[in-house]
Amino acid sequence: MTTLLGIELSGRSVLIVGGGPVADRRARAALDDGARVTVVAPELDAGLGGLAASAKVDWRPRPVRPEDLDGVWLVQAATDSAEVNAAVADWASDQRVWCVNAGNVEQGSARTPATAHGDDLLVGVVSVGSPDPRRVRAVRDQLIVLLRSGRLDQRRHRRLDGRAAGRERLAS
Predict the structure, then answer these.
(1) How does residue 57 score in pLDDT terms, banded at 50, 70 and 90?
(2) Given this model, what pLDDT does residue 122 score?
(3) Which residue, of 19, 21, 93, 155, has the greatest Cβ tally within 10 A?
(4) Which InterPro entries does this UniProt record tie to the protein (predicted)?
(5) Is the Cβ–Cβ distance between 50 and 97 less than 8 Å?
(6) Where do the DSSP E strands lie in the chain?
(7) Is the CB of residue 17 less than 8 Å from the CB of residue 79?
(8) How many CB atoms sit inside 10 A of residue 112's CB?
(9) Which residues on neighbouring strands pair with residue 66, listed in sequence order?
């Protein structure tokens, strides 16, 4: 069973394996989340190349090795090789590191949800069982339209101090 979980990546190490457009999207998403991103790939596409040139990501221009996973919180295997992605997923499992295998979601230990922001909420949809990316994106898109329509109550139910609104403090 898949559990949808929001994880805090800010300041944490994320490894992206691959240098193409999928790796580029995943690297940019991790950067947007505040992660420290390392990319391992013999070559990079123009987008990732620009991130490496500007030192926004640390690029290791070579094939991935098991030790590249040391100390990372999350790895995303996004190469054009099913064998490399599977090996990365196996190494991640051995090291108890969450891994998204972009080429075969069933081989990884994590899935990337289709997400969208609605005000200060993040909505995510992920499939369970067999992956169905088109369905996931379609449901996400419908949810965000509903959120932005104003028809849903999005009022805060917690005060800014972290306590639930309307609850009385217990007397000592």
Answers:
(1) very high
(2) 82
(3) 19
(4) Met8-like, NAD(P)-bd_dom_sf, Sirohaem_synthase_N
(5) no
(6) 13-17, 36-40, 58-60, 74-77, 98-101, 114-118, 121-125
(7) yes
(8) 17
(9) none
Amino acid identity for residue 145 in this structure: V
Can you give the pLDDT at residue 171? 47
What tokens were used for 17?
């394996």
Which residues, including other chains, have CB under 8 Å from residue 154's CB and lie 6 or more apart? Answer: 118, 119, 121, 147
Q: Which residues pair with 122 in a beta bridge?
A: 117
Comparing C-alpha atoms, which of 150, 144, 136, 145 is closest to residue 105?
Answer: 136
The CATH superfamily assigned to 13-107 is NAD(P)-binding Rossmann-like Domain (3.40.50.720)
What length is written for the chain? 172
Does the pTM exceed 0.85? no
CA distances to 19, 103, 124, 137, 150 from 133, rounded to whole Å, are: 22, 12, 12, 6, 27
Q: Which residues share a beta bridge with 118?
A: 121
The answer to whether the Cα torsion of 66, 32, 79, 48 is positive or negative is: negative
39 within 8 A of 28, measured Cβ to Cβ: no
